[in-house]
Amino acid sequence: MTRDETRAKGARLRVASRTEHLRNTRLDAERSDEPRSIKALLEYATFVQRLVDRVVFVDG
């Protein structure tokens, strides 16, 4: 495995980890009783999730 392949694999693993964290955050937000701040967090997490999905799709 070349150095670039190793870096790409590491980047994909970091993105997958962050994606899982965002999914968990979104699920926690949906269960919360604090609608305003949680709604903003949920919208942001959804936006970032879509962005990450696009980056992973383009990268491989």
From TrEMBL:
Name by which UniProt lists this protein: Uncharacterized protein
Organism: marine sediment metagenome
